[in-house]
Amino acid sequence: MRLELVTVGTELLLGFTHDTNAADIAQALAAVGGIIDRRATVGDDHAQIHDAVSQALERTRFVVVTGGLGPTRDDVTKRAVAELFGAPLELDEAYLETLRERFARFGRGPMPPSNRSQAEVPRGATVLPNPRGTAPGLWLEGTPGVAVLLPGVPHEMRGLLAEQVVPRVRARIAEDGGAARVTLSRALRTSGIGESALADLLTEVEPRLPPITLAYLPQLAGVDLRLTAWRLPPAEAGLALERAAEALRAALGRHLYGEGDTALAAVVLDLLRARGYQLALAESCTGGLVGAAITSVPGASATFLGGIVSYADVSKVRDLGVDAALIERHGAVSQEVALAMADGAAKRFGVAAAAAVTGIAGPGGGTSEKPIGTVCLAARVGPLRRTVRRWLPGDRLFVRERSVQAVLDLVRRLLLEEADTEGGSG
Amino acid sequence: MRLELVTVGTELLLGFTHDTNAADIAQALAAVGGIIDRRATVGDDHAQIHDAVSQALERTRFVVVTGGLGPTRDDVTKRAVAELFGAPLELDEAYLETLRERFARFGRGPMPPSNRSQAEVPRGATVLPNPRGTAPGLWLEGTPGVAVLLPGVPHEMRGLLAEQVVPRVRARIAEDGGAARVTLSRALRTSGIGESALADLLTEVEPRLPPITLAYLPQLAGVDLRLTAWRLPPAEAGLALERAAEALRAALGRHLYGEGDTALAAVVLDLLRARGYQLALAESCTGGLVGAAITSVPGASATFLGGIVSYADVSKVRDLGVDAALIERHGAVSQEVALAMADGAAKRFGVAAAAAVTGIAGPGGGTSEKPIGTVCLAARVGPLRRTVRRWLPGDRLFVRERSVQAVLDLVRRLLLEEADTEGGSG
User: Fold this and answer.
1) Is the pLDDT of residue B250 over 80?
2) Residues of A with Cβ-Cβ distance to B281 under 8 angstroms
3) In terms of DSSP H, where are the helices of A184-323?
4) Residues B308, A312: C-beta atoms closer than 8 Å
5) What is the per-residue pLDDT across A58-109, written as a single tens digit (0 to 9) for each?
6) DSSP per position, A18-65
7) What is the CATH number of domain B2-175?
8) Conformational region of residue B350, where left means phi above 0, alpha means psi within -120 to 50, and beta covers everything else
């Protein structure tokens, strides 16, 4: 089933807001067999909406439209599309009652008159209930084809998409002959290895992947590998994806840290928990970002005790017990100081796992010997201690985010090594 | 000058990647007088690109196309558009030489044969130099109108847009009669006040804003107010925007913390610096996020000394000197403990400005008395000490990010008060 998307909103068209709805709709419908040919974005303008939807229907006879269903006068989508279907707007008394009840229930006072227009429905349209907002979804079916209208508020749109639209599209594809071809993808996440080194590592695997395609997606935390099955029968797509993922896993080894949207910090916390370690941190240039990443994972408090943000050198000495002479001799950004910071954090918090970061995030502070982006990392896991120096050139944001990833990856690899040395008995 | 955008890429169409290019192009061209009627997105498919560009040219005779200019076989934009203009591709020897030199200069070895296709240029097209990458921009002009082709890699696209495309579009609009009408916007940023309270505050100002429109944009750090001048002569747009901003500033008072993309943390650092204070932090539920926000500002190290991430209660006692009995009596999430944490951080780091956060970010840990989202904040600025309890319901990410904003805003307001009490003499 071919289809097109039309997203409505002058703010979208001008780039003031990003079109997350289009991405969500495309992925959800491709996953059940929709083939998305084109997406158009137009402003809150009757003629533009009318033209874009009409042209989409001429090409594919199925269009999903989002945005422009609110109660204000800018919201003209419903009228423009109803006109295309020759369907006059009629007041849906039942829906009006639902709206009034909702306003009463939330104690927001009587429903403003402007909301009344949201209960006006094109004759013959199916109302798709929207429990999260006041504008219902609408499913219009007629001579021009099918038009599905969804509100533009993202969480309302996603609810309607999952609960109302995807099941109907799936059923329609099944009715149309059943031989759905779906587009599915999954991501494998790597860390601690660059894009070209990854490509070298996968030289032998890549030719075995088709019909699955492989895309390299450099992220701050490392390179994600996206595998995609394009327009295959559902069972075949799932099987082919799993086979490809299996081949990649074998080739990637420890460079692979997770799949889907697994966060590196969550993987580190799981490993710490499994090995019975608690963690403390010492951060300089990252200023708290490593702790923020760790504590973004629910349940971190059982494993993460805390940290010292020793932004000033005096704090490295006073709060982490780093020898002032060490800083004098090697500089605050050195592997020696990083290791002493990790030791100090472990000691202060009384834990056997600790990590430290000290570096030059810029824009000032670089030297020819230690240019901006120079970062020294250290980690301790039980008996293992390690420090590395990395050069992560880029702007301040990039240096800091990459430093977080690098130090988390160092802890992860030490935890895996430590498990090896104990034969996995822990 | 009316125009349309076409963005090319199957990954874009399926929502695997977000279309930041479209937003950048729309804003840049609207700001010099382009009127963007529509944007279309199609996959890496010759026929789809051909159709979408051809239809856009029929409607507006000016189209900007991004994506699909790389060296791989997926990149078919150039051929599809060249066909529309009846312009055969010809090897541009000068550009081929530029490419070869670039590969040699970066020591990447000889240029791969696949890059040779990037030196093929539609006959008569103007090559727009792309110093950041290997695919040049192309400006085609002929019977169908004008098509501007830009690579899809965002930083390459942005460079070409600013250096090559915007100046040409501006010149063309001037040639076409000069009466450009531009769409410009600016943002005023508020913190510590909700959307409906803001709307109440602005009741008297709003009717005076037209022709400028006002949009409320709730962000994590507070509500941004976007003022937009739509299709006005440039001088008039600038003046009307400035008048509207002036009216808002007067009404907003201290709720306004900055304009454009100013960060709340940068404002706090500026105020600290101006008043001669250094800052220390004590964080519990935010796990380092406040420090991360502060140190995301270049030059923070002169003012921010460091912090304690006391995620475990034992660290609040040991590292911040919080009385264990206080935690016992009021709970770790209490205004009393927040204030003691701020005091402890100030003392440990020997500074007169400090802030602390303790709260329940969820998903576990909530009680009926202190539900998830309960956050206690404290700040000290010289002689002033203050603590507040807030309820910021939402998911973990939201609670934490809103807590960061709330504590930074508390410090900001205390700094302004402190300046008042000293008559601004500092």
Assistant:
1) yes
2) 288, 309
3) 195-201, 234-252, 264-275, 289-295, 313-320
4) no
5) 999 999 999 877 666 556 899 999 999 999 999 999 988 888 888 777 666 7
6) --HHHHHHHHHHHTTT-EEEEEEEE-S-HHHHHHHHHHHHHHHSEEEE
7) 3.40.980.10
8) left
CATH, range B264-421 = 3.90.950.20
Chain B hits for A309, Cβ within 8 Å: 281, 288, 291, 306-309
Write out the two tokens for A271.
């490993």
Which positions ≥6 away from B101 have C-beta within 8 Å?
A: none
A223 vs A199: CA distance, rounded Å: 11
CATH class of A182-259: alpha beta
Strand partners of residue B384: B381
Q: What is the pLDDT of residue A426?
A: 42
pLDDT digits 0-9 by tens, A232-282: 998 899 999 999 999 999 999 999 999 998 999 999 999 999 999 999 999
- Cα–Cα distance measured from residue A86 to residue A192, given in angstroms and rounded to the nearest whole number: 59
Decide if pLDDT at B75 tops 70: no
> Reduced to 3 states, what is the DSSP secondary structure of residue A205?
coil
Residue B106 exposed, middle or buried by CB count within 10 Å (0-12, 13-18, 19+):
exposed
Residue the block writes with tokens 């419908």: A29
* Set of chain B residues whose Cβ sits within 8 Å of the Cβ of A364: 298-299
Minimum mean pLDDT among A258-272, A391-405, B260-274: which range?
A: A391-405
Structure tokens at A106: 């939330």
Residue B74 has pLDDT above 60, yes or no: no
Return the amino acid letter for A183.
Answer: T
Residue position matching structure tokens 């960060």: B263
Considering only CB atoms, A311 lies closest to which of B185, B306, B363, namely: B306
Give residue-wise pLDDT tens across range B136-195: 899 999 999 999 999 888 888 999 999 999 999 999 888 876 667 888 889 999 998 888
The residue with tokens 């006879």 is A61
Cβ-nearest to A288 among B14, B23, B291? B291
Domain residue ranges in chain A: 2-175, 182-259, 264-421
Q: In angstroms, rounded to a whole number, what is the distance separating the alpha carbons of residues A160 and A156?
A: 6
Query: Do residues B228 and B248 make contact, with C-beta atoms less than 8 angstroms apart?
Result: no
Q: Which of B226, B296, B306 sits opposite A310 (nearest CB)?
A: B306
Give percent of chain A with pLDDT exceeding 90. 67
Closest CA–CA distance from residue A215 to any residue of chain B (Å): 10
Asked whether A135 and A151 are in contact (CB, 8 A), the reply is yes
Identity of the residue in A298, A308, A310 whose CB atom sits nearest the CB atom of B363: A298
* Amino acid symbol at B181: R
Q: Which chain A residues have a beta carbon less than 8 Å from that of B20?
A: 18
Q: Is the CB of A300 less than 8 angstroms away from the CB of B310? A: no
Whole-number pLDDT of residue B178? 61
The predicted structure's pLDDT at residue B300:
94
- Note whether A182-259 and A264-421 share their fold: no
pLDDT at B344: 97
Question: What average pLDDT does range A206-214 have in this prediction?
Answer: 92
Record the pTM: 0.83
CB proximity list for A367: less than 8 A, separation 6 or greater: none
How far are the Cα atoms of A197, A267, A302 from residue A416, in angstroms, in the given order?
21, 11, 20
pLDDT tens-digit readout, A37-64: 999 999 988 999 999 999 999 999 999 9
Is the Cβ pair B288, A285 closer than 8 Å?
no
Q: Choose among B407, B415, B350: nearest CA to B382.
A: B415
Max Cα–Cα distance, chain A, nearest Å: 83
